[in-house]
Amino acid sequence: MVIKNLENKIKLVGIICSLFLLGCIIISIASIWTARGMVTDAQQKIYVLDGNVPILVERSTMQETLDVEAKSHIEMFHHYFFTLAPDDKYIKYTMEKAMYLVDETGLAQYNTLKEKGFYSNIMGTSAVFSIYCDSIKVDMQNMDFTYYGRQRIERRSSILMRELVTAGKLKRVPRTDNNPHGLLIVNWRTLLNKDIEQKNKINF
After folding, report:
1. pTM
2. What is the tens place of the pLDDT at every residue in 92-125?
3. DSSP sequence for 6-69
């Protein structure tokens, strides 16, 4: 009778120990899972110091900001390509920056203009070219875009405004210092480039 009671107590202790061990394993797994989730969540948050005050900045994926980045990339390229001054070093600098953002179709247009003496004429007439973006339409599904803008050409005796419409496609590429958006303009072409207004300067 005593031996039977002892066996029952040993079995009871074994059951209790097994349940305790199982409970520890469940708690450990739950703790690891929770900690992992907290770490993953923390990695999605960035804090920026404003003086001594930390400000939470939410991280976002490229897919979430692709529309904004695409428009910024397109506008940046057109700014570099169409903003010109009567300075050969400045023209070379802006063209080098622009060529990082476009494929060989951009280089082909640059070479065509260069062969026609377009850039030499800018320096000869002291013309200053500025570009103003009116709108950019981007089809994110097909990665097609159309750029609408106006170009201001200021010469010694006149100011000419031209309407500019270009189109092309976007392709994703690795981000670099020279291409921070990780996009490349391909099959770029000019659809419209015509004079819309000319004003003569009053020289004293």
Report:
1. 0.70
2. 999 999 999 999 999 999 999 999 999 999 988 8
3. HHHHHHHHHHHHHHHHHHHHHHHHHHHHHHHHHHHHHHTEEEEEETTEEEEEE---HHHHHHHH
